């Protein structure tokens, strides 16, 4: 009995550092953020959320739609890439697709800004080839933003998806192939269903990373509508207004929480099945 | 005997040690600077070496916090942390902040009154050292320089540039998307352009600049911003202060509001098409100073004061503020001019003459109006 208490205590001590980090760096700031989002001039109020609704409702919607779009495109690309590399060894592609992993967001933002500007590198090239006077630029538009997000996020997602695809026992695939299934069919009916949890993880990580990104929307995004993060920055920098900024933060928490709940439910039903 | 010898040695040693005490102790002067990289470079590479030559015991440490009110905001947060910690000596000795930052800092009791001890204060001829955004800041701040927004245009495409906001509105209709600015979230040149627009349209411009604050003076704003929204249909939105300059360089836009100092610095460094010119629009465009301030409990306030005195002196203002960095001086031009060559004077006042600067260079609006304008833009223009 005594020993058991002691063991428990040691167990508790072992968990303590991680637990403390979680409390101080995550739980405490979270509670504080939620608390601050209800404060205006030191009074508890819904006013901050009123302002979010009044001024930023369109930006919230835009953020969700943009992020969902990014996730969809990234998933399609990374599944295509992973399927290809699952069947065919191509070291060059295997290295190249990881390249964006090592380039900081800030650099990507600046590079894309120059690349996609109306008189930027891309258009200079195109106008010369196509012999037209002017082409519209994609920087400062939703297309440029989507393009850059996809460029940055795909390698992460592909890394996860490809890892799962490669970990899959080849005998399943060979069995399907022997029975005459085409490669595409194998991907859709065998590999993807078996790797669903990993694909979900890739999707959720992409979603969270996209919706919380600030650098890229600031540098490439259109002036209006904006991602939530840009609005938060604006509230703090120009108005010193932490209330509304935190209210916006809470809204983006809620968006992510919806996803997290869905993910946990999904994992619960999947558990006991095939591990990704 | 032995004891006596020991005492003698101790006495001798202490005399030796204490005799040195007029050699000043080593001091690290920590400064936090809001603003673009050029501000940090200014202190790190130009001012620090000169000042350290003058006071060899001092070492200057410069921390930059980035452009715009955001930079000032970061400094305020740092000072607030120092204050909240309850320490007797704060780790920050000098700050360089925007007017907004100065107002915030005074409200929170983060900076102290010091300019009574500053001789250079008497050389300041504009009233920026007394009023900032309609708030009395007398005693708390000394300007480091003045900066101004202006309309830059490319004479290759624009032979006869508009001279007022009214003419600009006509111009953009004839040349759609050839005027560009950076909205209000990407830097102060766009913000200043919007303020200038409100100054032009509002019936209460003087009140917006000098106060008092009352919502009733904002009655005509919905109309003003609706017209700005209409105007925006004909313009290009650029990415930040630098984005406007870039777009001008690449010929994507032919005109756009810029900071004069940034413009001339880029030009001097060969990063700007040298043919591009600037003009101030009637009835006026805003500019702002950057302010020196000393935190309430700065550990080395004495050297902070010496540094501010040093940078505000006519010689340094001439050599660095005007000649190297293309800012307008913090002190009267007459005090600076003797230290400048004619060539430099001509360059800085080439397009915008001094008289125009005094006539069309407007201060930023009162802080609450300023914030209301920015929010109004979000509400009525962006949506």
Secondary structure elements and their pairing?
The complex is a heterodimer of chains A (about 280) and B (about 375).
Chain A: H1 2-37, E1 39-40, E2 43-44, H2 47-87, H3 91-96, H4 105-116, H5 121-130, H6 142-167, H7 170-178, H8 183-194, H9 196-211, H10 215-220, H11 228-239, H12 242-270
Antiparallel strand pairs in A: 1-2
Helix pairs in contact in A: 1-12, 2-6, 2-9, 2-12, 6-9, 7-8, 9-12, 11-12
Chain B: H1 2-19, E1 27-33, H2 37-54, E2 58-64, H3 68-85, E3 94-97, H4 99-107, E4 131-132, E5 135-136, E6 142-153, H5 165-174, E7 179-181, H6 188-201, H7 205-210, H8 221-232, E8 235-237, H9 240-249, E9 255-259, H10 260-268, E10 277-279, E11 285-293, H11 301-312, H12 314-324, E12 328-329, H13 333-336, H14 342-348, H15 354-360, E13 361-362, H16 367-382
Parallel strand pairs in B: 1-2, 1-3, 7-8, 11-13
Antiparallel strand pairs in B: 3-11, 4-5, 6-9, 6-10, 6-11, 6-12
Tell me about this structure.
The complex is a heterodimer of chains A (about 280) and B (about 375). Chain A is built from twelve helices and two strands, in the order αββααααααααααα. With about 280 residues, chain A is mostly helical. Chain A has one domain (about 15-275): MetI-like (MetI-like fold, Orthogonal Bundle). Chain A has a two-stranded antiparallel ribbon. In chain A, strand 1 (about 40) and strand 2 (about 45) form a beta hairpin. The radius of gyration of chain A is 23 Å and the shape is flat. The two termini of chain A are about 40 Å apart. The relative contact order of chain A is 0.13. Chain B starts with a helix and ends with a helix. Chain B has helices at about 1-20, 35-55, 70-85, 100-105, 165-175, 190-200, 205-210, 220-230, 240-250, 260-270, 300-310, 315-325, 335, 340-350, 355-360, 365-380; strands at about 25-35, 60-65, 95, 130, 135, 140-155, 180, 235, 255-260, 275-280, 285-295, 330, 360. In chain B, the strands form three sheets. In chain B, strands 1, 2, 3, 6, 9, 10, 11, 12 and 13 form a nine-stranded mixed sheet that branches. In chain B, helix 3 runs parallel beside helix 4 and helix 6 (about 190-200) packs across helix 16 (about 365-380). In chain B, about 45% of the residues lie in helices and about 15% in strands. The radius of gyration of chain B is 24 Å and the shape is elongated. At the A-B interface, helix 2, helix 10 and helix 11 of A face helix 3, helix 9 and helix 16 of B.
């Amino acid at each position: 009995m005594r020993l058991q208490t002691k063991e428990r205590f040691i167990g508790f001590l072992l968990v303590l550092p991680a637990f403390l980090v979680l409390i101080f760096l995550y739980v405490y700031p979270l509670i504080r953020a939620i608390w601050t989002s209800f404060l205006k001039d030191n009074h508890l109020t819904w006013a901050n959320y009123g302002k979010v609704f009044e001024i930023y409702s369109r930006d919230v919607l835009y953020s969700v739609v943009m992020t969902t779009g990014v996730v969809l495109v990234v998933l399609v690309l990374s599944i295509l890439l992973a399927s290809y590399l699952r069947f065919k060894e191509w070291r060059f592609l295997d290295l190249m697709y990881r390249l964006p992993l090592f380039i900081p967001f800030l650099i990507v933002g600046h590079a894309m800004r120059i690349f996609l500007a109306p008189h930027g590198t891309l258009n200079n090239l195109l106008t010369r080839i196509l012999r037209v006077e002017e082409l519209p630029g994609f920087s400062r538009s939703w297309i440029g933003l989507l393009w850059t997000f996809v460029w940055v996020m795909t390698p992460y997602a592909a890394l996860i998806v490809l890892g799962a695809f490669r970990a899959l026992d080849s005998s399943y695939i060979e069995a399907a192939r022997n029975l005459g299934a085409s490669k595409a069919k194998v991907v859709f009916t065998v590999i993807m269903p078996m790797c669903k949890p990993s694909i979900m993880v890739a999707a959720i990580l992409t979603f969270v990373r996209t919706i919380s990104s600030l650098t890229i929307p600031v540098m490439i995004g259109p002036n209006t509508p904006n991602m939530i993060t840009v609005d938060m920055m604006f509230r703090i920098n120009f108005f010193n207004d932490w209330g509304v900024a935190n209210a916006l933060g809470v809204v983006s928490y809620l968006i992510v929480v919806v996803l997290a709940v869905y993910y946990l439910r999904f994992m619960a039903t999947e558990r006991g099945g095939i591990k990704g | 005997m032995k004891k006596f010898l020991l005492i003698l040695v101790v006495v001798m040693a202490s005399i030796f040690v204490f005799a040195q005490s007029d050699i000043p102790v080593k001091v690290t002067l920590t400064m936090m600077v809001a603003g673009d990289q050029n501000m940090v470079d200014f202190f790190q590479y130009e001012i620090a070496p000169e000042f350290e030559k003058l006071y060899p015991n001092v070492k200057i440490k410069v921390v930059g916090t980035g452009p715009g009110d955001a930079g000032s905001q970061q400094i305020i947060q740092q000072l607030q942390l120092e204050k909240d910690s309850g320490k007797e000596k704060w780790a920050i000795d000098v700050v360089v902040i925007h007017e907004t930052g100065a107002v915030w800092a005074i409200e929170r009791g983060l900076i102290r009154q010091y300019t009574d001890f500053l001789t250079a204060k008497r050389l300041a001829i504009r009233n920026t050292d007394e009023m900032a955004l309609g708030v009395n800041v007398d005693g708390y701040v000394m300007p480091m320089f003045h900066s101004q927004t202006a309309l830059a245009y490319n004479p290759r495409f624009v032979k006869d540039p508009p001279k007022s906001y009214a003419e600009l509105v006509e111009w953009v209709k004839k040349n759609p998307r050839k005027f560009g600015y950076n909205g209000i979230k990407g830097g102060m040149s766009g913000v200043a352009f919007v303020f200038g627009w409100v100054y032009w349209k509002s019936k209460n411009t003087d009140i917006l600049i000098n106060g008092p604050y009352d919502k009733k003076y904002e009655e005509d704003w919905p109309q003003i911003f609706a017209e700005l929204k209409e105007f925006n249909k004909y313009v290009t939105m650029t990415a930040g202060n630098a984005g406007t300059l870039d777009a001008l360089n690449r010929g994507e836009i032919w005109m756009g509001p810029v900071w004069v100092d940034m413009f001339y610095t880029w030009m001097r460094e060969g990063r700007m098409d040298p043919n591009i010119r600037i003009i101030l629009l009637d009835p006026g465009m805003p500019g702002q100073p950057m302010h020196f301030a000393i935190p309430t409990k700065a550990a080395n306030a004495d050297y902070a004061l010496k540094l501010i005195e040093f940078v505000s002196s006519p010689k340094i203002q001439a050599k660095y503020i005007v000649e190297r960095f293309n800012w307008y001086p913090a002190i009267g031009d007459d005090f600076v001019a003797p230290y400048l060559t004619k060539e430099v004077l001509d360059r800085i006042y080439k397009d915008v003459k001094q008289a125009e600067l005094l006539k069309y260079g407007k201060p930023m609006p009162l802080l609450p109006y300023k914030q209301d304008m920015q929010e109004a833009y979000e509400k009525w223009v962006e949506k």
